[in-house]
Amino acid sequence: EQAIYAGSIDESGFIGVTVRSDGPCRVIVTFDELLDESGDINFRRLGCGDILEWKLEKGGTHALESFEPYAGKYVGVMVMEGAAEVTDVAVRTYKSPAADRASFKASDPALEKIFLAARESFRANAVDSLTDCPIRERSCWTGDTFFTGRGAGWLTGEPSSERLFLENFLM
Fold first, then answer.
1. pLDDT in tens, 85-138
2. Strand, helix or coil at 49?
3. Strand 25-32 and strand 51-56: pairing?
4. What percentage of residues in the chain have a pLDDT greater than 90?
5. In sequence order, which residues have a C-beta less than 8 Å from that of residue 85 and are 6 or more positions away?
6. Are 159 and 149 in contact (CB under 8 A)?
7. Number of H helices, E strands in the chain
8. Which residues of 59-74 are buried (b: 16+ CB within 10 A; e: fewer)?
9. β pairing state of 60-65 and 2-21
10. What is d(CA 1, CA 3) in angstroms, rounded to the nearest whole number?
11. CB 64 within 8 A of CB 17
12. What pairs with residue 29 in β-bridges?
């Protein structure tokens, strides 16, 4: 069986589930930012393998969490072998809190929505140094600071992410 859970936005963080079984079982978790045309998660989209697997040798209640941070709006859970009940599907977010100080008000709600999306994108991509994507590209690129340095200062009030990037580049 498979169940798909949908978040309200793309979240970046550690994917976790609680699994209860009476014996051995194998649990697969897939994730992505989009659903395909059939309403399913294509965990191979963009050449990625957005999949986690746990093989549990004993029954019991197991709180499982990914070792690395990932991103997505949709999480699919499948019990591939054995029988198990899966509960508490969640993402423990891993984002920069520095951008929370910025706010924006406008008479046009669409502009406020764009601002919130931009701020959320920055939070997900600037935990320490700025990256292109918290799931596929977890490294810094030299050309990015030209565009992000201005936004980072405006969102956080300081150039710390750009400074960290430049220090790493010099090393």
1. 999 999 999 888 888 888 899 999 999 999 998 888 888 888 777 776 777 666
2. coil
3. antiparallel
4. 40
5. 19, 20, 21
6. yes
7. 3, 6
8. beebebebeebbbbbb
9. antiparallel
10. 7
11. yes
12. 52, 77
Report CA torsion sign: 123, 128, 71, 92.
Answer: negative
What pLDDT is stored for residue 113 in this prediction?
A: 93
The residue written with tokens 């030209």 in the block is 146
Pairing of strands 2-21, 25-32: unpaired
- Amino acid identity of residue 93, one-letter, is T
Q: Give the integer Cα–Cα distance in Å for 49 and 60.
A: 28
Most distant CA pair in the chain, distance: 58
Torsion angle, CA of 131/133/138/144, rounded to 10 degrees? -30
Which amino acid type is present at position 35?
L
Q: With bands split at pLDDT 50, 70 and 90, how would you rate the model's confidence at 1?
A: low
Q: Which residues pair with 60 in a beta bridge?
A: 21
Closest to 26 in 3D by CA, of 56, 65, 67: 56
